[in-house]
Every structure is written in structure tokens, then in C-alpha cells.
Amino acid sequence: MVKERINANDEINIGRSVNIKEEGHGTDGVSVKKFVSIEDKDQGNDEVNISRFRTGSLLPCARNLAKIAKLFEENEVNSQCNVISCIVMCGTALEASLFEYAYFNEKQIYDDTDNFINRGMYKKYKMLFGKKLKKDFQEVNELVDFRNAIVHNEPDHKSGRERDLAKELNADKALWAVTTTEEFVKHILGKDY
Question: What's the pTM value of the predicted model, to 2 decimals?
Fold first, then answer.
């Protein structure tokens, strides 16, 4: 098993310490639950549960990135780096929630690897719910558009490439991305993270 290269109580540059502990392993030897606690000096603790499905770990990390983007708002480069990371993480959390839903509720669809796992988010959503994601969740559609503008390297990729990210990505956009993702995940999975 691969172990993280982070030591307990490593100081992070904004006054945080990180602790990692594992609990239990599945039959395949993969860690079932891993907890990362992030301690803010004089502000309490957050704990991120890293389970087999990443939704529960991606959302708290995205929330943290949005907070850091806001904290560094005066330094545009630092803020935008955290905003970009936050939006990519939110996009991943959106897709992780569809995987989690399929695994527990639509096992036959989930197990059809070529037709589900290897498809994009819009097709996954349609396969699971028989509806169009763009119609059901317009803000999620906009978030996916931002994510695509960030992660697609081809200059002629149509989704989001026309956006001027330097003007549009700010700390408020990161907070919006987290809220949009949380609302989608709660709707899909019926629970908060």
C-alpha cells in the first residue's frame, strides 16, 4: 500500500497542522477509511474522511481551497491558483457523486464499464436519471463549463474555452463552486459532506 509523504503535524504555511490516521482495510487491502484532520491555530479543527468514494474528501478539501483563495484574495496569483484547484476539485466531486450513486443504486449500470465509467459526466447523469444535466442543474452545467475551460488543453475544445479565466476566476467564484457542488451532491446522494 502506498503511504502519503506527509508527516503528522507538518506545518502548512498558513498556520495549519495535518494529522493522518487509517481505520480498517477492505478485502482487497485498500484502506476503507482514512482521516485527515486539519487544525487551524485558535480556530478549531476540520476532519476530512477519505473513503473509497472521494466525494467525502473532495468537498471538504474544495471548501478549504475556497477559504484559502479568500484569505489570499489580495495576492491575485495565489488566489487564482487556489480558485483553479477548487473548481477542478469540485468538478471531480460532482463526478464522484455520480459514481457513488451508481455503485449503490444502479449496480448494473456501474458495472458496464465501457458504457458508464468511461463516459463523461453528462452521459453518466443521463444514464442514471434519464434526464439532461444541463436542464436539471444549470449552475452545475456552468461549473462544468469552468472546469472544462481549465482542464482541456486543446484550443478548439468548445466547452468553456471562450471564457476569459483571468477575469472570471476569483475567490467568490470558488465559494460559488463549492456551494453549487454541495447542493448537487446533496440532491444526488441525499446527504451532506
Answer: 0.71
